[in-house]
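Hi there. Long-time user, first ticket. I'm pasting a complex I've been working with (about 335 residues overall). I'd like to know whether the download I got is complete or cut off, because the file seemed smaller than I expected. Thanks.
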Amino acid sequence: MRESPSFFAFPMMLSLHAIGMGLAAGVNGALAMRLLGAARAIPVPELKRFFPAMWFGFWINALSGVALFIAYPTKALTNPVFYLKLALIAVAIGLSRATTRRVFAADAAPDPAPHVRRLAVLSLICWTSAITAGRLLAYTYTHILAGT
Amino acid sequence: MTGIHAFQMKLVKAFASFTSVGASMHTHWGWPAAETVHFIGLSLLLGTLVLWDLRLLGVGKRIPVAAAHQMIRWTLAGFAVTAVSGVSFLMAEPTEYIYNSAFHFKMLFIAIAGVNAAVFYLTIGRRTLARGTDQDTSLPAKIFAVISLSMWIGVIVSGRLLTFYRPGWCGTDIPEIVATCVPQKRP
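Hi, the file is complete. Here it is re-exported in full:
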């Protein structure tokens, strides 16, 4: 893909990755902020209707991420920040599932319990850290390609 | 030299005058930090905006439109975060953006999104915000939502493409040389 005859292959994967990031991190962030008191008039369980958009963003990023990885595998694999980013995303998705299981349930309390608020804070920390790690990948690599 | 070139040169001069911002952006972690803030702001902007626009399009109809609209202040907060970090890029390397066609498109899409939102509030905004639980919005409201989402996706794509359309380094003699900015090799 790096040397794709299409000039747009690599830039388009980067664009998709940014859109997917906005959807995955953004919708999870909006849920977390609602649980922490933003937009109180929104009934929390109804936010589940927007989670297909969140997962759509997540899968766009899984696929575009694999494409970007294939273009520069050595660059990613030799950078500890890459593993940190994947770990942060794994934790963030785990937190997302733990949170939605609690607040989207039919018998969920209308006001989020303190432990749900803690999940929301952790979720915001994980997503912003994952974005930070992702952005720093462009600055922290030591090898672009094998042998370089 | 008239018209657009004079305007561009004026912009370059204005942004370049914030030399201390430019200097801090050119420190080791200045640029990556601003980019990170820009991406976090993007996520805040898009994540809260899709809730609003998708509600207009009929997703999550149990949510009263006015309730979904409470998220818009966070969309604006996200926009403020991206605007501040975005302007710091311009202050650091004005010619890289003022003479960059991807940047022109990005600004165009933001302007259209802004006009779209303004026209929405000036026309059907009040009526649409009155739609409650399980009430659908009008066709014009859905068209506003589609334009909004398309423009912001356009903003993200042109923002990401921007780096591939950089005019290159235009020499130290800004702003004189930039009117006919010819990319040069950095010394």
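A couple of notes from our side: The first helix of chain A runs from residue 9 to 35. Residues 92 and 126 of chain A are 5 Å apart (CA to CA).
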